[in-house]
Design the sequence.
């Protein structure tokens, strides 16, 4: 009987991680549905970029106030979770505050966790106020439908509950230590919870019930949180790291060149190449089945990872000139729709073993051409994203499909392109007149 | 005005150090031609040994690429690269941030590797090297606000050169709230220049013009022909064209020479 809590804890621990790993594998599988893209180059620069952008949150500083709040929650999350290690050991062995032998250091740590917990609590409350009372517009764009809105709030409530549980647990512990209750070694310092402690009952049994109750809820809460990530925009706390590591390191103005197109264009331009010639040995002629992207399978894996990393903060959309002037385009919605479609395909695979054609695709069913054509390719969204997501690359890939596979560009653009093709300029002027400006005065 | 073509120089057995890539707007558009001429005036004044391509130049391919027509882009790019290489071009300067971006970033993979400069960078270089003397007189005391082009600023991280050039003048440089990497687009990029905007509340250029006018400039300085067109329209829409000029940095500097 004595071991029941330990066994229960072990089961919870294993279940929590197994469930998490299972979902994590699904995400990796879904991301791998994307086309290959080599981002294994420039390792040193990549580590540096990740350290700077993900660990150091350098891009958050573009908006200083939320950056400070976010930094507190982030630091709190990481540092307070040091205590999780102690919780795991205590839970498995039935010990209490197993690290307390560290003495002064332990006291210092527990003390700083408490202060951080309060700061996190305050930050999260301010976040809630920004979202619900001040109603900052980027939290209320039209793609912020019920689930995205609730998801964001769920996380805030979760943080509030976890931090409160942590402080109440410490307060009960503090009282129990002072009462000299058995098992409750005198350890830790409680700069915050000692005040909460005065509000608690003084009965030892009630206190133990409270301490154990909050301890278990805290533990269960952490496991729920861990497994909630998979369903949530909050996944960025993990994916921000690979996402910045594999981010584009070049100038954002540089779009990729489709190599498959280069082969074709060179063939068109060089009459000496025999289009029917067999490819040279060892050199495989790879003809893509299509140009551009109409579904998530046509995007590369980094773009799909981007979709899983998007935390729906809406900074991109808030700076998008098209969105600011009432156009249908929202870079955040591009990322959310890409993720929704990818999730749909993931579920399809779960159900059928392999993807079964569902008659849907990212283009039209999720992202409308009207959104794609509103983009000015200004890169504001790309620069603004705190985790280096590139919505523009998806927009361009989908435009490529519309233009090269379907000839479905807006009429004026078709005219522009015809002009370039015929006379090397987007307007109908004679190429021979290109230097005529020299003759005018 | 002295702006020979590479071909003209070749017949004289001469070679240029620098190619001035004029671009389509700079070649044909009446307003942009003024910018081209202003820049040529600067090049002449600084005695730069440059040439243009004239009829041998073709579109950089930027609007085609950004409209999604990779095929057409690469055709244009490869044609330009062939011509560039034929004249053994090493260094290219252009007044179009779009051509600048495309040639600098997207041509290398197709075999075209050159040193590419935006005209504001080149003017800055000429000033630093003492090849261009600026009196600073013509715009004395004026309030000038600079609009960062997306393809110079965000796309290529160049915010300093245009400002350094403007600061050579005896002016007050005022910054719109959204400046540098936060500068709002003029609305013309990504091939929008050539089409009507999608359905919305208003035009992007209206919004950007308003932002620029908030700091009460007497002159809005641009560094892109498309931005110039858009903001000129924006200023007209506000009936402010008699009070506020929209000028390219090349025009501002050329006036001061």
Sequence:
């Amino acid at each position: 009987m004595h071991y029941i809590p330990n066994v229960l804890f072990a089961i919870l621990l294993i279940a929590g991680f197994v469930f998490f790993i299972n979902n994590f594998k699904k995400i990796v599988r879904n991301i791998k549905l994307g086309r290959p893209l080599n981002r294994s180059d420039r390792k040193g620069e990549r580590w540096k970029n990740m350290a700077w952008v993900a660990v150091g949150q350098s891009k958050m500083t573009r908006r200083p106030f939320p950056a400070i709040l976010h930094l507190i929650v982030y630091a709190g999350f990481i540092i307070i979770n040091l205590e999780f290690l102690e919780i795991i050991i205590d839970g498995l062995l039935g010990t209490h505050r197993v690290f307390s032998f560290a003495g002064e250091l332990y006291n210092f740590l527990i003390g700083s966790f408490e202060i951080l917990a309060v700061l996190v609590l305050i930050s999260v409350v301010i976040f809630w106020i920004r979202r619900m009372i001040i109603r900052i517009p980027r939290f209320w764009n039209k793609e912020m439908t019920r689930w995205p809105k609730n998801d964001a709030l769920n996380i805030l409530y979760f943080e509030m509950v976890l931090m409160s549980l942590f402080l109440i647990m410490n307060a009960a512990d503090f009282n129990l230590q002072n009462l000299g209750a058995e098992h409750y070694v005198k350890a830790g310092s409680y700069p915050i919870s000692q005040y909460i402690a005065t509000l608690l009952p003084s009965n030892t049994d009630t206190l133990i019930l409270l301490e154990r109750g909050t301890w278990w809820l805290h533990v269960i809460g952490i496991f729920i949180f861990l497994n909630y990530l998979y369903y949530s925009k909050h996944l960025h706390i993990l994916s921000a790291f690979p996402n910045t590591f594999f981010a584009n390191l070049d100038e954002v103005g540089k779009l990729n060149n489709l190599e498959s197109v280069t082969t074709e264009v060179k063939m068109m331009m060089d009459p000496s190449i025999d289009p029917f010639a067999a490819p040279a040995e060892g050199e495989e002629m790879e003809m893509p089945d299509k140009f551009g992207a109409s579904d998530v399978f046509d995007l590369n894996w980094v773009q799909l990872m981007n979709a899983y990393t998007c935390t729906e903060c809406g900074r991109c959309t808030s700076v998008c000139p098209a969105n600011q002037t009432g156009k249908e385009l929202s870079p955040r919605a591009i990322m959310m729709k890409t993720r929704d479609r990818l999730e749909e395909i993931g579920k399809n695979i779960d159900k059928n073993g392999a993807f079964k054609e569902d008659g849907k695709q990212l283009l039209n069913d999720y992202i409308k051409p009207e959104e794609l054509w509103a983009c000015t390719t200004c890169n504001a969204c790309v620069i603004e994203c705190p985790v280096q997501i590139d919505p523009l690359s998806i927009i361009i890939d989908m435009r490529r499909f519309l233009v090269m596979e379907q000839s479905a560009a807006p009429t004026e653009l078709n005219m522009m392109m015809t002009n370039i093709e015929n006379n090397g300029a987007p307007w109908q002027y004679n190429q021979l007149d290109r230097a005529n400006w020299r003759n005018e005065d | 005005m002295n702006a020979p073509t590479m071909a003209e120089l070749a017949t004289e057995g001469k070679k240029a150090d620098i190619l001035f890539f004029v671009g389509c707007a700079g070649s044909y558009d009446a307003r942009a031609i003024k910018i081209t001429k202003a820049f040529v005036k600067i090049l002449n004044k600084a005695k730069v040994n440059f040439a243009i391509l004239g009829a041998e130049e073709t579109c950089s391919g930027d609007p085609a690429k950004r409209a999604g027509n990779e095929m057409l882009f690469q055709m244009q790019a490869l044609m330009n690269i062939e011509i560039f290489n034929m004249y053994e071009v090493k260094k290219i300067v252009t007044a179009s941030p779009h051509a600048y971006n495309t040639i600098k970033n997207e041509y290398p993979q197709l075999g075209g590797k050159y040193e590419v400069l935006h005209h504001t960078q080149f003017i800055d270089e000429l000033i630093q090297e003492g090849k261009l003397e600026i009196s600073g007189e013509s715009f004395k005391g004026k309030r000038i606000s600079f609009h960062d082009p997306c393809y110079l600023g965000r796309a290529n991280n160049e915010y300093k050169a245009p400002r350094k050039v403007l600061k050579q003048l005896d002016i007050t440089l005022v910054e719109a709230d959204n400046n540098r990497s936060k500068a709002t687009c003029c609305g013309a990029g990504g091939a929008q220049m050539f089409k009507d905007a999608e359905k919305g509340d208003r035009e992007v250029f209206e919004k950007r013009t308003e932002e620029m006018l908030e700091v009460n400039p007497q002159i809005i300085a641009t560094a892109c022909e498309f931005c110039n067109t858009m903001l000129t329209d924006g200023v007209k829409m506000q009936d402010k064209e008699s009070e506020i000029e929209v000028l390219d940095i090349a025009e501002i500097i050329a006036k001061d020479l």
In short: Chain B touches chain A through 70 residues (CB under 8 Å).
